[in-house]
Amino acid sequence: MDLREIKKLLEAFDKSTANILEYENEEFRIYLDKSASVVQPQPQVVAQNPVSVETAPKSATQQVEAKVECEVEGEIISSPMVGTFYQAPSPDSPPYVKVGDKVKKGQTLCIIEAMKIMNELEAEFDCEILEVLVEDGQPVEFDTPLFRVKRV
């Protein structure tokens, strides 16, 4: 489960009439209780990027999002426009970048196609690609997270 999925889960829980939400998969477990003053994952949680969640019951979504974003390693590179995300210049070409690649400032990360114009998205700083957050050919909106990176 990635950050986007966690946010969707929290938003749905915040809007619902349910007071308790428990979700578990092989990587971690989330337990939310609107009536409690503190919401935390169970102690046996084991994840690659551990997430600690503490919130007040009035606005669980906003406060949990802030806590989650603070503890996830790296920075997010977002889409500067609405369009279609492409990892490579053509379907037969290898992707511009993949997880683990070290990228230099100005190096092309992907293409965002908007109105039949191919716009190259370049790295604004030297970084390492930690995660590609969208699928090739997926439509993206302004500010859609595309990559999670670590400055080097």
Radius of gyration: 18 Å
Question: What can be said about the biggest beta sheet?
Answer: 4 strands, antiparallel
* Class inferred from helices and paired strands: alpha+beta
What is the beta-strand fraction?
A: 25-35%
Return the string of H and E elements: HEEHEEEEEEEE
Compute the average pLDDT: 78
| Low-confidence region ranges | 37-47
Shape: elongated
Strand order of the largest sheet: 3-10-8-5
Total strands: the figure is 10
Terminal CA distance reads 26 Å
Number of helices: 2
Care to describe what's here?
With 152 residues, the protein is an alpha+beta fold. It is built from two helices and ten strands. The strands form three sheets. Strands 3-10-8-5 form a four-stranded antiparallel β-sheet, with no helix packed on it. A four-stranded antiparallel β-sheet has the order 7-6-4-9, with no helix packed on it. Helix 1 packs antiparallel against helix 2. The longest helix has 13 residues. The chain is elongated, with a radius of gyration of 18 Å. About 7% of the residues have low confidence.
Care to give the gist of this entry?
The protein is an alpha+beta fold and 152 residues long. It has helices spanning 3-15, 60-71; strands spanning 20-24, 29-33, 75-78, 83-86, 102-103, 108-114, 117-122, 127-132, 139-140, 145-151.
